[in-house]
Amino acid sequence: MKFQWTLLLGIIFALIVAVFAVINVDPVTVNYLFGQAEWPLILVILGSVLMGGIIIGSVGLFRLYVVQRKVKTLEKENFILKEQAENGNTKKKKETSLKKQAPDSIGETGE
Prior knowledge:
The protein has 111 residues and is mainly α.
């Protein structure tokens, strides 16, 4: 359901940008570092939206990659700690069973 809402909002946003771009078809001067050119405003708007989407998507993918790596290391650490805890519990059980078998005081013979 969440994906459907996200898709619906994305389509609405794209529609608004498209209507806004179609209304603004006047030529504008775009200044570059090395020169200038005249472009229709519709291409400038759509190009800006596209570049913004690419930049946001790239940042999102990078953050996702970093979080996945952190999750993987934490899962490994959690697995190691669980193994250590289980080994510690079995060791304690063995020690308590040995104590039950051994005499408690010096005078006892254990028979």
